[in-house]
């Protein structure tokens, strides 16, 4: 093996990861980080998983607005994810997943925006990309369970009851640590008009 093919040492990799996590932890909602335009949603790549995990973990630990996911769960569902990257630095700025639940139903999960780029339309870009994919797949309804229903209402969702999604309750909610004290509100959007157009 030549010296060119040898990657960074494990210790150097850990130091690099530690400084990246530190940089994210130092940011907070309202911080303004410079971002090049235009911003578009892209399909997530396998290399995005650690950063998606870091953003989810950040919001889980700071506000509890998203449920935790292991890095392994993100690899398993990487094809569900779309991301927005800074076109200059290629840094990950936002992510979210469209997870198909049944023949006519999908859920938006793990929606996260970098705390330094909130309020700049990135959440909308991710949700719009998920809805576009849902229409392409022929899905009639998309829902989300959220602590920020007002954000989803701005995007055309309506508040509904989680009991409208019994499969979700049976499949996943029963295993959730928040099951007996759930603070999430179900929001849903009907895509049938878009399917027919
Ligand atoms: C909630 C979140 C995804 C919103 O993303 P964002 O990029 O900051 O939001 P956008 O800039 O795309 O906002 C789109 C619209 O929603 C509104 N909006 C955004 N956050 C809102 C909130 N918390 N309450 C009410 N409205 C909100 C915006 O004003 C904007 O409305 P407009 O287009 O009429 O001006 C983001 O703040 C986030 O990652 N929060 C922490 C994790 C979280 O709560 N995830 C959702 C769990 S399901």
For the largest beta-sheet, the strand count, sense and barrel status come to:
7 strands, mixed
Question: Could you state the CATH homologous superfamily?
Answer: Gcn5-related N-acetyltransferase (GNAT)
| CATH level-3 fold name | Aminopeptidase
CATH architecture title: 3-Layer(aba) Sandwich
Helical content class: 25-40%
What is the N-to-C succession of helices and strands? HEHHEEEHEHEHEH
* pLDDT < 50 runs, ≥5 residues: 1-5
How are strands sequenced across the largest beta sheet?
A: 1-2-3-4-5-7-6
- Give the class from helix and strand content and strand pairing: alpha+beta
- Can you identify the CATH class? Alpha Beta
Strand content: 15-25%
User: Whole-number average pLDDT?
Assistant: 85
Strand-helix topology:
Layout: H1 10-26, E1 41-43, H2 49-62, H3 71-76, E2 81-85, E3 92-102, E4 105-113, H4 122-137, E5 141-146, H5 149-154, E6 158-160, H6 166-171, E7 185-190, H7 192-196
Parallel strand pairs: 4-5
Antiparallel strand pairs: 1-2, 2-3, 3-4, 5-7, 6-7
The chain binds coenzyme A.
Can you put this structure into words, describing what you see?
The structure is a single chain. With 197 residues, the protein is an alpha+beta fold. The protein has 7 helices and 7 strands. A 7-stranded mixed sheet has the order 1-2-3-4-5-7-6. Residues 59, 65-66, 111-113, 118-124, 144, 146, 148, 150-151, 154 line the site of coenzyme A.
């Amino acid at each position: 093996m030549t010296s060119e093919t040898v990657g960074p040492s494990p210790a150097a990799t850990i130091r690099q990861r530690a400084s990246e996590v530190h940089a994210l932890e130092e940011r907070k909602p309202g911080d303004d980080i410079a971002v090049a335009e235009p911003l578009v949603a892209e399909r997530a790549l396998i290399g995005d998983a650690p950063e998606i995990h870091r953003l989810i973990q950040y919001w889980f630990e700071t506000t509890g607005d998203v449920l935790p996911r292991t890095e392994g769960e993100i690899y398993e569902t990487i094809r569900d994810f779309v991301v927005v990257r800074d076109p200059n630095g290629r840094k990950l700025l936002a992510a979210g997943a469209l997870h198909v639940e049944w023949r006519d139903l999908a859920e938006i999960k793990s929606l996260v925006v970098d705390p330094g780029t909130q309020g700049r339309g990135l959440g909308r870009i991710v949700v719009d990309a998920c809805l576009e994919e849902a229409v392409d797949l022929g899905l009639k309804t998309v829902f989300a369970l959220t602590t920020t229903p007002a954000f989803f209402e701005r995007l055309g969702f309506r508040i509904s009851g989680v009991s409208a999604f019994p499969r979700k309750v049976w499949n996943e909610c029963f295993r959730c640590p928040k099951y007996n004290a759930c603070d999430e509100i179900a929001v849903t959007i009907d895509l049938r008009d878009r399917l027919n157009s």
